[in-house]
Design goal:
mainly alpha, 44% helix
Length: 211
C-alpha cells in the first residue's frame, strides 16, 4: 500500500522563497558579468585596439653624427725644424782624358814599317823591324813600285810586286783588314807579306831568301 506522504503538496515557506530569490539573482549577475567580458573581447574591440596602435606617432629618425669641425691650420702649433743629416762628400769625378792622338807616320820606308808593325801587333801577326827591313832591301831595294817581270811568276802572268814582292793571289789570300786592298800600297804590301810568312815560316824574321 503506497505511502500518501510522498504525494502530499508542499507549500514553501516565506524564508525558503526569499532564499531562492537571492540565489537566482546571484546566478543572473554572474551570467551578466560573463557576457560583458565576452563582449569586451569581441572583434570590434580588437579593431579599436589596432586603430589606436596605428595612430601612435612613428619614432623620430636617428640623426646622422655631425663631423667635428676641422681645426684651422694657422691655429696649429708650428712643428720644430729637425736638422738634416749631413750627406757624405761625393768622391771627385775621375778626370776624363781625351783619347791619344792617332800616330803620324812618315811617308817613307821607316814610316811604312812602323805603321805595319802597329797593325800587325793589333792582329797578333809576328815580325820585327829588322826582319822586315832586311827582306825589303833584298826583294825591292825599298822601292814600293818594284815589279819582277822575268821569273817564273812573271812567266805565269802573276809577277811579284811591291816592297816585299808579293804576287796577286797571295796578296788576296793574306790581305790584312784595316789596310787598303791595293797590292801597291806600301803598308798593305808589307802586312800581307808578313801574314803569309807567319803562316808558312812562323815569322818574316825567319825568311832569309826568296820565299
Amino acid at each position: 500500500m503506497l505511502d500518501r506522504r510522498f504525494f502530499t503538496s508542499h507549500r514553501p515557506s516565506l524564508r525558503e522563497g526569499f532564499t531562492f530569490a537571492v540565489a537566482a539573482a546571484g546566478i543572473i549577475a554572474v551570467a551578466a558579468s560573463s557576457a560583458v567580458s565576452v563582449a569586451d573581447d569581441s572583434v570590434p574591440s580588437r579593431v579599436a585596439m589596432v586603430a589606436e596602435e596605428q595612430a601612435a606617432p612613428a619614432a623620430a629618425p636617428i640623426a646622422a653624427p655631425v663631423a667635428a669641425p676641422v681645426a684651422d691650420a694657422a691655429a696649429l702649433p708650428a712643428l720644430p725644424e729637425l736638422p738634416l743629416p749631413a750627406l757624405p762628400a761625393l768622391p771627385p769625378m775621375p778626370e776624363v782624358l781625351p783619347p791619344p792622338p792617332a800616330p803620324v807616320y812618315e811617308n817613307n820606308l821607316n814610316g811604312w814599317i812602323l805603321q805595319s808593325l802597329d797593325i800587325m801587333r793589333a792582329r797578333n801577326i809576328p815580325g820585327s823591324y829588322d826582319g822586315i827591313h832586311r827582306n825589303i832591301i833584298r826583294e825591292s831595294g825599298g822601292d814600293p813600285h818594284a815589279i819582277n817581270l822575268w821569273d817564273s811568276n812573271a812567266a805565269a802572268g802573276i809577277p811579284s810586286k811591291g816592297l816585299l814582292q808579293v804576287i796577286d793571289p797571295t796578296f788576296a789570300t793574306y790581305h790584312v783588314d784595316g789596310t787598303p786592298f791595293d797590292i801597291w800600297d806600301p803598308v798593305a804590301n808589307i802586312t800581307a807579306a808578313c801574314n803569309y810568312a807567319a803562316n808558312r815560316y812562323g815569322s818574316m824574321d825567319n825568311v832569309n831568301s826568296a820565299y
